Amino acid sequence: MSISRRNFLYKSTAGAVAAASISGIVSSCVSEPKQKAASIFAKGATVLFQGDSITDAGRDKQNESPNRAWSFGNGYALLAASQLLNTYPAEQLSIYNRGISGNKVFQLAERWDKDCMELKPDVLSILIGVNDYWHTRNGNYDGTIDIYENDYRALLKRTQEAFPGVKLVLCEPFYVLKTSAVDETWIEPMQQYQAAAKKISDEFETIWVPFQKVFDEAIKHASGTYWTPDGVHPSMAGAELMAAAWLKAVGE
User: Fold this and answer.
1) All residues at 6 or more sequence positions from 103 whose CB lies less than 8 Å from its CB, including other chains
2) pLDDT tens-digit map of 112-135
3) Which one, 143, 201, 210, 215, has least CB within 10 Å?
């Protein structure tokens, strides 16, 4: 067998193993939803991804058109949106990414008219919370868990009042230990933010994406830095893991 042929087979096998690992991780962590995605992503639906840098992922903010790769950056939102468009071509979905790096909940609220209300989403996915804690560590933000919870609740109430039929997908803020930015001091405070997000998810009866559980399982298969170098922003593998978990949660 030639070296090139051997290398091709090795890379193909490695890719298959990685895909199988991600599928297995997600299957063990994300429960089957009560309804399938086909009942959520109706014909002509508008889908909106919102959040901070994890969702932003370096997207082009000069052209925020739907269904445009450059408008999605290179993160989980691009991968999840691509899968939806491939699965439901007849539904003619309009999918947007309006995540902005560094955002906390109050900053989502400040731009909500432009980056949510004007888009009239039928499905709204939000991943927010890590900066609400992280930015308190360097003294540049004096937010508290109560501020996070109250602001988040008010944002969702405002959204539901405007769009009573909107389907909400709340994503758990997460952290991964033994990485460049995250250590054990993150555990207790981040668990409070995660509990607040889950409490709000339950109150509003949203779809819940348990990212912390997914990453906790993932580090049993590869190091934390394999999934996210700094413990917050995903690698290529981490982005694929997140997209797979998000799709499973929504019933895809």
Assistant:
1) 51, 52, 53, 128, 131
2) 999 999 999 999 999 999 999 999
3) 143
